[in-house]
UniProtKB/TrEMBL annotation:
This is Sulfonate ABC transporter ATP-binding protein. One of its GO terms (molecular function) is ATP hydrolysis activity. Residues 11-242 form the ABC transporter domain. The keyword Thylakoid does not apply. Belongs to the ABC transporter superfamily. Keywords: ATP-binding, Nucleotide-binding, Transport. Transmembrane segments: none annotated.
Length: 263
């Protein structure tokens, strides 16, 4: 059954079992989820519950073993070939011998976009993450937070509507993370992209998301999908409000319920 016309990601009864030498690993089971255009969806759950695997299935880096999934109405493979998404990894994964500009424009080079156009788009992407002026620097000349912003710019360079982000700020200290959360939220509000974001942090999930998907330990199932209704131009101070704390409480309760389910 097709989801609404605005569904960017439509997942029904999806499961994924890895066959390993030690037997099957049930990574995902019975996952139903719709991500609509303009949504910011966070996935939160205990380590090993299949968050990365789910993102990788969306990106066509893993194949589901059961159920259905479509991205913009087509298969993940077709969506990947159409360059429907930008992917941001846990670590920045920048090539050390390339300048920031040449890292950011690498996908455009692969797409054989002419040099002038590449440079123009690279500048635009770097501006979106407030890294303009750093084009000629090399990754090692940038802080960890700046490197992660450069990797976001790389994912933005070809202007895909969907951004898949796998715990992009997990390795950063809290102050830097707060700042990048604010910047990412502004970027999302300005560009109207659809974001699927993996995190371990409850405040990060609640602050950033329009929908929070709480997952159980393996096999990863969806325990709760919490919709939020915060203003798009919210600042970090929203984290002190009763509404925010109430949502955070519900996420925590979901995670706790998932744990007892496993024991
Ligand atoms: N290629 C693979 N082969 C076998 N098992 C795998 C493979 N990839 C992932 N797994 C297993 O599938 C489960 C889900 O892994 P996944 O990385 O998706 O979890 P996660 O929720 O993202 O974890 P974390 O929060 O620690 O990053 C884990 O038990 C993991 O060991």
């Amino acid at each position: 059954m097709p989801a609404s016309a605005d569904a960017v990601v439509d997942i029904q009864k999806l499961s994924l079992t890895f066959q390993t030498a030690d037997g099957p690993v049930y990574a995902l089971s019975d996952v139903d989820l719709t991500i609509e255009r303009g949504d910011f969806v966070s996935f939160i759950g205990p380590s090993g519950c299949g968050k990365t695997t789910l993102l990788r299935v969306i990106a066509d880096l893993e194949k589901a073993t059961g159920g259905d999934i479509s991205i913009n109405g087509v298969s993940p493979q077709e969506a990947r070939e159409n360059r429907a998404y930008g992917y941001v990894f846990q670590a920045p994964a920048l090539l050390p011998w390339r300048s920031i500009e040449r890292n950011v424009t690498l996908p455009l080079e692969i797409m054989e976009i002419p040099r002038e156009e590449r440079i123009k788009r690279g500048h635009e992407a770097l501006k979106l993450v407030e890294l303009n002026g750093f084009e000629k620097k090399f990754p090692w000349q940038l802080s960890g937070g700046m490197q992660q912003r450069a990797s976001i710019a790389r994912a933005l360079s070809f202007d895909a509507d969907l951004l898949l982000m796998d715990e992009p700020f997990g390795a950063l200290d809290e102050i830097v993370r707060d700042h990048l959360n604010e910047q990412l939220l502004k970027l999302w509000a300005r560009t109207n992209k659809t974001v699927a974001f993996v995190t371990h942090s409850i405040p990060e999930a609640v602050y950033l998301s329009t929908k929070i998907v709480v997952m159980s330990p393996r096999p990863g199932r969806i325990i709760d999908v919490i919709k939020t209704d915060f203003p798009k131009d919210r600042g970090l101070d929203i984290r002190e409000t009763p509404e925010f704390l109430e949502v955070a409480h519900r996420v925590r309760e979901g995670l706790r319920a998932g744990h007892s389910y496993d024991e």
